[in-house]
Each structure stands twice: as structure tokens, then as C-alpha cells.
User: Which sequence fits this backbone?
């Protein structure tokens, strides 16, 4: 069997750049070498593209290094994914499937997916529409509310509204929600820019912080006495859900430092929750994945209130963390799918989705 050439795209102009580098390194280290050969394309934090055969040659410990060559974007009819301008001329690079693992801005929001659609090559994960609506927490929650998926109350507003009249914004928040609340950038993940707010005096700082990372923010009702439940979803038209896992951080909440730096959490896999509740949450995860037009993979996060046995959708991540300590691969491992087999399955799903698309007619 001929090995398929996989291009891992990682890094990115995002607050989650370092997380993406870690995810890419884990994929490179654990991919099935009998079936796949890897190549890497790192995106620097200022948006430049750097190609290499291994992650080590184009990164330092945490970041993608500046490129020494110029990379051209793909063209659908060239028969190659990317072209590199070198000292000796133009070199074309061909790949069988793309594994994008840029978390957050420009990588998880449909932007990169649009570029990959132009290449007409298979790629892991949701398409432009699914990526875009899942990335925007406001749009995501509006659609899920229409679908009847349980979630907490929220308000949102843009940076312009805050700049014109912060007093009105704070008044709306305090009228609609009760403390504690969470202030978040609308289009970011890995808990970047998120603050837990316990009193009105903390609101101004939390909102200002969130606006450092996005021009739109969402403020969500906090829920006390909860477990954070995560479910990994895998598939295209017939998605499957993993067992439920629970995150119990020892910090104030499951923030960036806890997720990726200190690992100061207790993890329950499977989560210690009633079996009937776990099944309802797994079904809600698949419903969320489907109604938001997702494919390939997603991690769907919920809050479970232990006293009332109620659960609430927190958010969905279409390109979740893929590091050695990330919940997405851990959940599938507990469900019976190893990290290596999971990676292979995602690449297979990408090719399946691409083949289905090739059957569509583009002339009339």
C-alpha cells in the first residue's frame, strides 16, 4: 500500500499559537508511519507560512520560525497544493490530505478552510460554514437555542457599543444576569481572554481584557456546583460520541494555564455522573455537532449541575486541542480508540467527505 502524504498545518495568528504547535507535534509523533508520511506547514504569529519536512526544523520550543522561502497559495487546477519560490525557481508540493490543527482565529473559524477548499484536496474537520458558525459563540448559541439544546442565559455586544456607552452595556449585563458570570471573546478558544466575574466592580476590567482578543464578546450566566463535562464527537453524516469526561480544576475555573501549563486538574473518564444523564449529554453533543453543520471531529463541552441533575451546553470546538494531555484524544482512548487510530480515522473521514463532494455537479 502506498503511503499517503499528509500536510499538517499549525501555528497561526492567534492567541492559541503555542497550543497549536503542541497539537501538531503530538500528531507528528503518533501518526501511523506505515500508512502516512508527514510534511508540515507552520504559520507564524504574524501570518507568514513556513514549510518543512519536520516540525523541529521550522519551530523553536513554542513558536513557528520566520520562513526563508516564499509560499504561494494553492490553485485547484495546478495539481499541487502549494508552490514554494526558492533560489532555483518554483517548486510544487503535492499532498494527499491536509490535517489543519490551527486553533482559534484564522484556523478554526472557516478562514483556513476556505483556502483548503480552493485546493480541492481532502482536509480534516468541518467545512467553511460549520467552522464559522461553531467558532462564533454568539451565533453558535443562537442556533442551539433554536434547536432546543439546554444552555445558560447570555448577552453579547460589540466593541463599538462598549466604546460608545459602557454604562449601558454594564446595566444590561446586571439586569439580565446574576453573579458570578463569565466574560469571553466571542471567537477564541483555550480559555484565552476569559474572566470569571463575581461582582460588578470587576466587570470593566474583564470586558476590557476580552476585547483585547476580539471585537465581539459574550457574557454568560455562571452556574454554581457544577462539573464540566466534555464529549468527543467523531464522524461525518453519522457521528458518534465518546464516553463523557469530567474536568475538575483546582483553580478558579478551567483556564489557559490549567489546560496547557500546569495540568492542575482532576480528570474523570468516564465522568462520575448518572448513566441516564451521561446518555442525554452524549445525544445533545451529537445534536449540537449536527445542527451546526460540523464534520470530522469536535469536542462539545457542557456544565452539569449536580444538585438539580440539569446540564447546559457550554460550547463546541471544531479543532480541539490535540496535545498529549488534551481531552479529545483522551476521551476516545477511554472509548477504545488509540491516539494513532484516531488520527488515522480522522484522515479517512476527510478523504470520505472529499470523495462525496466530487460526486456533485458544477455545471447545469
Assistant:
Amino acid at each position: 500500500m502506498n503511503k499517503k502524504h499528509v500536510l499538517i498545518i499549525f501555528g497561526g495568528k492567534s492567541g492559541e499559537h503555542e497550543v497549536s504547535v503542541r497539537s501538531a507535534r503530538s500528531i507528528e509523533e503518533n501518526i501511523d508511519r506505515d500508512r502516512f508520511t508527514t510534511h508540515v506547514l507552520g504559520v507564524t504569529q504574524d501570518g507568514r507560512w513556513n514549510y518543512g519536512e519536520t516540525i523541529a526544523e521550522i519551530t523553536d520550543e513554542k513558536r513557528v520560525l520566520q520562513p526563508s522561502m516564499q509560499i504561494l497559495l494553492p490553485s485547484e487546477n495546478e495539481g499541487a497544493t502549494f508552490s514554494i519560490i526558492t533560489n532555483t525557481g518554483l517548486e510544487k508540493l503535492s499532498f494527499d490530505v491536509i490535517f489543519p490543527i490551527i486553533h482559534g482565529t484564522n484556523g478554526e473559524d472557516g478562514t483556513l478552510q476556505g483556502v483548503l477548499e480552493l485546493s480541492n484536496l481532502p482536509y480534516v474537520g468541518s467545512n467553511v460554514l460549520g467552522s464559522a458558525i461553531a467558532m462564533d459563540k454568539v451565533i453558535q448559541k443562537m442556533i442551539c437555542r433554536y434547536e432546543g439544546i439546554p444552555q445558560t442565559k447570555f448577552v453579547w455586544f460589540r466593541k463599538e457599543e462598549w466604546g460608545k456607552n459602557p454604562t449601558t452595556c454594564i446595566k444590561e449585563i446586571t439586569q439580565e444576569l446574576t453573579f458570578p458570570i463569565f466574560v469571553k471573546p466571542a471567537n477564541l478558544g483555550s480559555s484565552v481572554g476569559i474572566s470569571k466575574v463575581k461582582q460588578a466592580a470587576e466587570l470593566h476590567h474583564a470586558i476590557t481584557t476580552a476585547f483585547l482578543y476580539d471585537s465581539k464578546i459574550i457574557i454568560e450566566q455562571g452556574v454554581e456546583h457544577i462539573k464540566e463535562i466534555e464529549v468527543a464527537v467523531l464522524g461525518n453524516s453519522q457521528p458518534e460520541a465518546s464516553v463523557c469526561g469530567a474536568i475538575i480544576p483546582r483553580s478558579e475555573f478551567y483556564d489557559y494555564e490549567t489546560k496547557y501549563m500546569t495540568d492542575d486538574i482532576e480528570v474523570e473518564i468516564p465522568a462520575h455522573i448518572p448513566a441516564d444523564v451521561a446518555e442525554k449529554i452524549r445525544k445533545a453533543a451529537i445534536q449540537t455537532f449536527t445542527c451546526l453543520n460540523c464534520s470530522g471531529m469536535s469536542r462539545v463541552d457542557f456544565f452539569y449541575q449536580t444538585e438539580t441533575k440539569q446540564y447546559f451546553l457550554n460550547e463546541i470546538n471544531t479543532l480541539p486541542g490535540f496535545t498529549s494531555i488534551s481531552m479529545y484524544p483522551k476521551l476516545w482512548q477511554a472509548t477504545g480508540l488509540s491516539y494513532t487510530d484516531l488520527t488515522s480515522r480522522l484522515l479517512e473521514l476527510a478523504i470520505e467527505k472529499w470523495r462525496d463532494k466530487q460526486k456533485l455537479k458544477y455545471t447545469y
Q: What stands out?
A: Residues 42 and 320 are 18 Å apart (CA to CA). Residues 258-262 have pLDDT under 50 and may be disordered.
